[in-house]
Amino acid sequence: MQNRSPSHLSRRRLIATLPPLLVLTAMASSGRVWAQGAFPQRPVKFIVPNAPGSSVDTIARILGTQMAQGFPQPIVVDNKAGAAGALGVEVGRASPADGYTQIIASSSAITIAPLLQKAVPYDPLKDFEFVSLIAMLPNVLVVNPALPVRNVAELIAYAKSKGSSSNMASAGVGSTSHLAGAALQAAGGFQSLHVPYKGGAQGVTSVVSGETDWVLTPAPAAMGQVQTGRLRLLGHSMSPESRPLGDVPSIAQTLPGFEFAGWIGLMAPKGLPPAAVESLRRGMAQALQQPELRKQFDSNGAVPTTSTPQEFRAFLVRDIEAHKKAIEVAGVKAE
After folding, report:
1. pLDDT at 20
2. Of 25, 290, 318, 330, which shows the fewest CB atoms inside 10 Å?
3. Which residues of 23-39 are buried (b: 16+ CB within 10 A; e: fewer)?
4. pTM of the model
């Protein structure tokens, strides 16, 4: 249990003045000494370029809560949704490179948005400092429980039998769920009508209600509904060896070679000093080792992942190339 020192309580009162931001309070014990000039000396902000309740937001809040326990300052989660994540990322890019504003980055905002939005002002490989990957996110293939399918092969057969009356939800044109779904259809040799929504939560809700038949969406957006029985889980989009969801089969067991995973990572404005990058990376790596965080990641289907900044950048280069191919398959044009 943390010591409730006077300085701790005064910081708690200060934090209470910060709504509507969600403040993840984090105080070091009163006995911990931080050298003058050490990082951080004031609250650290995590910009989440997605709406509350999204996959990225869910993972950011879990991580922020755990990281905060090792920081002498609070971590503040600030949702800046819009333009498929590009709005929040641009806010982060334009912030001072002092370590106090970080970006919870994802494949949708960092990889996909610059490929599909001509107005995106940032270059994902040049305009940021890479801190570390946070998690790999399998996409999960889920259907309405009333649908007469219980595995990937049966969904393919069902869609083929229904023709254009079969439909697929997504978080919007060019979203991860749209591209993943298009890739699944190409691999399985079937077609479903694409029904785009304004966000992942709305797309998943449409499958729950029966308005649409299926969606291949990042796991944190759907696993809560799976656990309550409101969605039926057919498979995940990572390799059979990864087993992110225990005994849940990989789609690749039916469609060999099929993989389409998302990711979440921590990035910062360009020019952040290496010492601050390392402080953040180390704090995040420690948080990802904690049993409580790993339990929460597991329940959301997220696979804890760490990297060096160099490894993160190399990963992004490969991810951009893979998504260029997926966009071509989906037939989506940049606008």
Report:
1. 31
2. 318
3. bbbbbbeeeeeeeeeeb
4. 0.77
